[in-house]
Amino acid sequence: MDYAHYQHLRFDRREHGVLLVTIDREQRMNATDERLHAELTGVWRDVERDPGTRVAVITGAGQAFSAGGDLEMIGRLAGDYTRVAAMATEAASLVTNMLDCEKPIVSAINGSAVGAGLAVALMADISVIAAEARLTDGHLRLGVVAGDHAAILWPLLCGMAKAKYYLLTAEFIDGAEAERIGLVSRCVPREQVLDTALDIAERIATGPQQAARWTKRTLNHWLRVAIPAFDAGIAYEMLTFLGDDVREGARAITERRQPRFASGADPHGSDDATEKTDV
After folding, report:
1. What's the CA gap between 113 and 48, in Å, rounded?
2. Domain residues for 111?
3. Is 181 exposed, middle or buried, given 0-12, 13-18 or 19+ CB atoms closer than 10 A?
4. Rounded CA gap, 249 and 128, in Å?
5. What tens digit of pLDDT does each residue of 65-100 get?
6. Is residue 23 part of a domain?
7. Phi-psi region for residue 193, left (φ > 0), alpha (ψ -120 to 50) or beta?
8. d(CA 240, CA 79)
9. CB burial string 131-163: b at 16+ within 10 A, e below
10. SS3 state at 48
11. What's the CATH code of the domain at 69?
12. Is residue 79 part of a domain?
């Protein structure tokens, strides 16, 4: 399998058929532009077809796993029906390609994971996170629906009450809390994240291969049951990219301030708004 055409993903073959995939857009905290988003969508089909790979491990270069959607890309998407329609198909395929890939996937969440980056991190079959790493779905901060993986995965991993709380508030969660609520598999010190993920991958890669692949396939039927909700989430997310709130959300993140969403304005005309923010 030739991975030379990938621009923002690096590939390193380890022993026993373990393939280390590194998201490498470090200068932008591995945020997903159009090219990287497409690569994160398509790579799982290549992994599945790769006869030299038994297990894939994915991590981020530098201090972040992936900081979510690049704000310049979001600016190009906002209000553009053609771009949004294409992204709807790709965003759905990112999740379903990971779901359908017969090879087990392990994520080494070395730092911040947001948006599409978080989808990759959590859709992995086993996830290992750094204790101090921070994650958030982040869509509500941007003014769009929590689509991507959220509807299909969060209620199953951490329960509906926690899923609604963290998706509707877009609060950040550190690695320890993510493990406590069941959102990730393991939480370890940052310096141990990649070694732990690679060790898990090697154990799977040296075990019974067909049994591992069919176990993954069988367990993923729990997620496939939620495909109708997932489709609705993607559709509603893309619909909100055609509204006004997403532009204000992107500006607020860039300016590191609290967003003032038009749809959330005081109906009585009060203009008081808290300017403190954690973004």
Report:
1. 24
2. 9-197+205-235
3. middle
4. 30
5. 999 888 899 989 999 999 999 999 999 999 999 999
6. yes
7. alpha
8. 9
9. bebbbbbbbbbbbbbbbbbbbbbbbebbeeebb
10. helix
11. 3.90.226.10
12. yes
